[in-house]
Input
Amino acid sequence: MKEEDSFPLCDKCAPEAGSIFRHLLPAELEQLNYRKEFRKFRRSDVLYREGGRISGFYCVHSGIIKVFKTGSDGKEQIIRFAKTGDIIAYRSVLSNEAACTTAKVIADCEVCFIPADILISFVKSNPVFAHELLKLACHELGEANTFITDIAQKTVRERLAEILLYLVRDFGLDENNYLRISLTREEIANIIGTATESVIRLLSEFKNDGFIELQGRRIRILNSRALENIHNHLA
Amino acid sequence: MKEEDSFPLCDKCAPEAGSIFRHLLPAELEQLNYRKEFRKFRRSDVLYREGGRISGFYCVHSGIIKVFKTGSDGKEQIIRFAKTGDIIAYRSVLSNEAACTTAKVIADCEVCFIPADILISFVKSNPVFAHELLKLACHELGEANTFITDIAQKTVRERLAEILLYLVRDFGLDENNYLRISLTREEIANIIGTATESVIRLLSEFKNDGFIELQGRRIRILNSRALENIHNHLA
DNA sequence: CGGTACGTTGAGTCATATCAACCATAGTGG
DNA sequence: CCACTATGGTTGATATGACTCAACGTACCG
Output
């Protein structure tokens, strides 16, 4: 079928996207291809909701997803983003806990849904894969620790500079130095833990200082070195 | 030898302390007992330092250890505590990254030092153990996410109430409702990400409200329900 | 006995949150 | 086609939580 062709096959997708599945054996990849379900989502669709039980996890083929927790007063706290090659919800699957986050689409995406049991079975059957998964979780843990320290100790201004640089690193710039991810001011605020108005004011401060340029939601990075300095408390 | 007797044997310690090693097979436990090194540390000793390469990890037999990151201005951010049955530094060992935290003794402790290679080999040889280790890492990741959300969204007052409850849950109360962990005001500040003076002021506010009692460094919990309410923004 | 680390309190300041008003844009339905 | 509504962005005024700085008290320790 024509349709079929457009499905990403894991044994092609895994190495290209650099996903964790590149550590699977051919037979396991075949099994994965057989069991997975290809799905498309559009902006603001929700993949799963915190508190819910999870029957599987997702591997992102294209698009961007934000993963957030809802605070007691209903405010979103964005924990991380997932893009091509990333997997989400694996935490809940592996620890067998209810989802502690919600996943919502930021840029239209294509993902594979993979039943929970298959992940567990790979962990049990493929030690290298298990180790890689551990590396992944431990790496994320390290990043979480860094984030905790920053959010606890740095000013909003410093955190904003940091997040811009993080977005550059993770999503890159286009040919005109515009960030390849588009976020609302509120979403930016929900990453660094501040008010929307503060983000707006600080962004326009950065603009006036000539570090960035703003075209609506698009952000152009002019002087990442300066942002680096702000982040490191040197300015 | 007399000395030998005082060494904790992992096959006894693991089930009692509820450590991750309870999932090992007898032969593996034996290997662990053979390879591990028993060590004692006193208050303010450092087990390992951030940035350093790690040749092994630690399983805590007794005592309390604080694990923290040092912020850019030298301020400690306490990430977690480790007590009987907990393992530390496993993150760096598994992800093969330099230590991103420092571990310092809060209450005199006895630990086993375990060479890195043995952990990796268990992950490879024992799928159940690997899975349990994944559960552990994923659970910690979930806790980190919650902490990020709290620190980003809650007031210092709310966080202080929360941390007191967390310390009750994790370390318990003695017969007179005193916390079984002793921290300096500065250490408390370094958990919740605030200034020492703020902790002092808020603690004495809680005292005046009759929620707690203070005897130097010892904290007596009188009304945990009230603290619960503060934490949940209900008061 | 002096030193060092910890605890406490007060005063002043500042970064950031909050509240309110307003504008721009786009989608919707009559 | 146009009012209508919702969403997101911006700006200003004001309030305040929390930090900083400084001084001083306290307790333990060699």
